[in-house]
Amino acid sequence: MHFSSWTLRSRLIALTVLLVAVTSVFVGGVMAFVIKQSFVANFDNQLANSVQGISRSLASSGQIASGQYGVEPGTIVAYYPTYATAAGVQFGTNDAVQLTQRQLQNVESSAGSDRLRTGAPAAFATGDVGPREYRFTTAPVGPGGSNGVLVVGKPTSLLNTEIAGVLAPVAAVVILAIVLAGLLAALIIGRALRPLRRVAAVASNVASLPLERGDVELPERVPEEDTNPHTEVGQVGSALNNLLDSVQSALEVRQASEEKVRNFVADASHELRTPLASIRGYAEITRRFGGDLSEDVQHNIGRIESEAQRMTSLVEDLLLLARLDAERELATTDVDLSRLLVDVVSDANAAGRDHEWELDIPDEPVIVRGDAAKLQQVFTNLVANARVHTPAGTRVVVELAEPRDGHVLARVRDDGPGIPEKLRPQLFGRFVRGDSSRARSTGSTGLGLSIVNAVVEAHHGTVSVASEPGTTIFTVQLPVQQPAEAKQPQPA
Ligand SMILES: Nc1ncnc2c1ncn2[C@@H]1O[C@H](COP(=O)(O)OP(=O)(O)O)[C@@H](O)[C@H]1O
Ligand SMILES: [Mg+2]
């Protein structure tokens, strides 16, 4: 996983631990270096003391005394007298052990043969004698080095154990500090980010509300303690609260203006009914009792009548939709869907004698809770579409299935030409209709299916369509066990 996709919490913890680790390792490293330097200096000091002491003792007595001058087990003492071949001893736990010729050569090469020849004063060198590493120093023996040169070497393992003894606790403390920093960072950062999580929770709760329709309440706010403007999270919290406040008032304004438009449409449709009825009436009277009218005038009056009729159904549909939008409660009674379909199909049969009608309902009556008149409108519209938008001879089947899983399915199927493809996506939208001249002459408004949709939604059901040339099926699904007070969802 890429670092930038980590949570803020993990990132902050990782960064803190890294920072503490780098700092501690740096400080620890510097400390280790300084400690090591001082230990080496101390070691060399002791070595210098040893070589001086032994050199003096050699000069005065010609002997190397064991157990003196800081000669510890493992110390190598090699003497290069001017008058004889070199001799060396290694001090063990108890005794001095004579160095072999080979070991002596190693001492010589490690300590530097130049110095041995010239008898130069002490300088420190590191080298291997056998398996161990030694630090050597030399000293002249006798006045002006006249007796020879002395070499003393101590195993560095002594030094290393001492250094390790000091540095091990330092390393342990560094590791402990890193672990502790990680734990503390996790704790503190977790706490510091908790308000951010609360703010996020409020935001996602609000986002899950259905804001697009109706009277929306936004009860959710970031709690007081997370809106302190002196903290960053508090600023986010109070910004979110301000946003929610303005969204709330925007929604109220939207709701008010929607209501205004709905009321206006309902009022306007209602007001238009009376003059429309008059126009139809006068047109009819003129046509019937107008005396000898020319064919042209008769035709025109017929057009006035049919257009007035079309406008009447448009106004009726608009009024129904506006009322559906505005009404919150449906009048709910037990509705016998089987009976309702029988009525709808027999009406359709009377109106469309040039179509074939078939009804297929179960033996038992199917009862749903709802508004009988509006449910009737649903099936009247679907059946009218199957009659009006299909050619003569089309077969229309209305089926009602047995209720299952708390739902009942009603289908209106025809074998007509199908719904034009470009209509299908917004078929249930308002004023969506096929533009055939036949549809126009039959009073097509494009509101039929949007009424179907609104009524079915108000009954907590669904309506869907499947259409291809030769079969068009509208399926209405309604809950059989309708809750006592069916609430109409808020209109868009
Ligand atoms: N059974 C059907 N067969 C063919 N086309 C249909 C059918 N039902 C609906 N349509 C198409 O869908 C459009 C929208 O239907 P609708 O909303 O009832 O409006 P309207 O019937 O007033 O035109 C219709 O204009 C028609 O083109
Ligand atoms: Mg229609």
In short, what is this structure?
This protein is an alpha+beta fold and 492 residues long. It has 10 helices and 13 strands. Strand 2 and strand 3 form a beta hairpin.
How is the secondary structure organized here?
Layout: H1 8-61, E1 76-81, E2 87-91, E3 96-98, H2 101-111, H3 113-118, E4 125-129, E5 132-141, E6 148-155, H4 156-207, H5 232-289, H6 295-326, E7 333-336, H7 337-351, E8 356-360, E9 367-370, H8 372-388, E10 395-400, E11 407-414, H9 437-441, H10 448-458, E12 462-468, E13 471-479
Parallel strand pairs: 8-10
Antiparallel strand pairs: 1-2, 1-6, 2-3, 4-5, 5-6, 7-9, 10-11, 11-13, 12-13
Helix pairs in contact: 1-4, 4-5, 5-6, 6-10, 7-8, 8-10
The structure holds adenosine-5'-diphosphate and magnesium ion.
